[in-house]
Design brief:
three-stranded antiparallel sheet, 10 strands, about 10% strand
Amino acid sequence: MGLTAAPPVPFHPVPFRSAHRRPEVTRAPQTYAGARRATGPPLRPLMSWASRFRLLQYTKASLWIVPLIGLALGVLLAEWAVSVDATEWLPAGWRYSASTASGVLTAIVGAMIALLGFVVTIGVLVVQQATGTLSPRYMRLWYRDRLQKAVLATFTGTFSFSFALLRSIESDSVPDLGVTMAGSAVSVSLLLLLVYLNRFTHNLRPVAIAGLVGRMGEAVLVRGEAAVLGAAPRSADPVPPPAGGPVAFVRSERGGVIQAFHPERLTTLAARHDCLLVVTRLVGDYVPPGGVVVEVHGGHPPPEARRVTGLIAFGSERTIEQDPAFALRVLVDIAVRALSPAVNDPTTAVQVLNQIEAFLHTVGRTGLRNRYVLADRSGTPRLVVQGRDWEDYLQLAVTEIREYGTSSVQICRRLRALLEGLLTALPPGPLPAVRTELTLLREAVEREYPDPARRTRARTPDPQGIGARPRPGAD
């Protein structure tokens, strides 16, 4: 990343855009003021926040870290079991001969290897189905499944536990407790395997995946908005321009997709240098190498570029942590894939539209803005970040589905029902954009269906796509 100076430029922040188009300044939490009272330079961490974020993302998406932990725990547990066996407190029913113990543990080791191969095969089939009939973007969410990692960790742990016990078997010394524990671990492994198979058999259906992705996006949206808007009471005063001084630009060195940033620490950094930081990109945007990421207004001196970019995480693709629109993107991709000539499954697209409608209702009630300002404890604006408003989400949700699905009567009717449902459920602010989408849908239907009877059928709102007779008065 680089920090380049520019001639003094006056900064004129625009007011927030919301359903009521009112400006807002959000105060930062109390912790922001602590940095301003600091008397010396802060200690530099060994790893920046952005690096830690990327490491956490890699850990969440990794399929080998948790099984490796299970492998190590299995060895340690085997050592403990052998040490407990030395006390000879076990009942007589838990005693095994050396040959029996060796045979049982050998069979368990072989079974765990076979089960690991079976789970890996299921994973390969999931990848093939997801990339072929769903969306490749869904794979980033599937890699994080905790049950799958728990199953793999249980298998590897049972394998290492049983294998470690084999070396302690002698003609006059048998780890009786360990053999019993190994048998119990096999039972737990089989139970988890059945749960795993049941879950993925049912949850790999497009409608189930759409429901999961939709709920994740709604949770991120509500949590993120509550964290920003709940930091301080609302204010209708416009954001004052910062003090005069040069404007510097923080540029991306390698480029990539903005996956997340740390607003609290950026606000603290701006307060420490008495400047205003303006993040010029949305979370989820791709920034080319050398592209401007942050504008620095004021500051004597301005913060180091490395410190600013250390609070902005870049990656090769979008994540869902601070990007609820990514969940909506996955839903639209699944619907568009179902509408492709290769799949030709408009009913699946209708089912996905059910989840998209629920997501849009959440977005419409949230009152999003396209610009947010965070202030320090004294109320001085320190950080300006860009946001997606209602129109951004609405266009993302319906534009591609309308373009690819106009030839399907089901899609036309379901989209009409979705948009009319938004008109009756949302506050007045988002309604003009909904009416615009209704007009675009009506024009697309008129172009696609020249026959009046077919046009009337396609323009009839129907929550099931095709499940209700045309009602009088449908225009």
